[in-house]
Amino acid sequence: MENRLHWVLYLGLELVRDHNTLEPATEETAELCDRMLGLGVIVQPAGDHLNILKIKPPLCIGPTAVDFFTHTLGRALTELGHHGTSERTP
């Protein structure tokens, strides 16, 4: 059997309800995953609280696909009403 090295691109985006308390946004993450799927992008909830958006694009991803993903994520967040702009304070 031949040993092969496999490269993987894996990103996680943690979603919280409140930037001060860091309360996990479990339900919101599930809603976001469902909406993204409806818009043609597969993402999954991950983590102990299922509030991390698991993003696993192929290594050959290009600018067009990245633009599509970011546009779709922004659209889904806006449609679901989760487009807050508050900054986290220490």
Topology at a glance:
Elements: E1 11-14, H1 26-38, E2 44-46, E3 52-55, H2 63-79
Antiparallel strand pairs: 1-3, 2-3
Cα(first) to Cα(last) distance is 52 Å
Q: Which shape, going by the Cα principal axes?
A: globular
Helix content: 25-40%
Total E-strand runs:
3
How would you classify the helix and strand content by structural class?
alpha+beta
Poorly predicted parts: 85-90
Features:
3 strands; single chain; 90 residues; alpha+beta; disordered C terminus; three-stranded antiparallel beta sheet; 2 helices
Brief account:
The chain has helices at residues 26-38, 63-79; strands at 11-14, 44-46, 52-55. By secondary structure, the protein is of the alpha+beta class. The chain has a three-stranded antiparallel beta sheet with strand order 1-3-2, with helices on one face.
Please explain how this structure is put together.
The protein is 33% helix and 12% strand. With 90 residues, it is of the alpha+beta class. It has a 3-stranded antiparallel beta sheet, with helices on one face. The N and C termini lie far apart (52 Å).
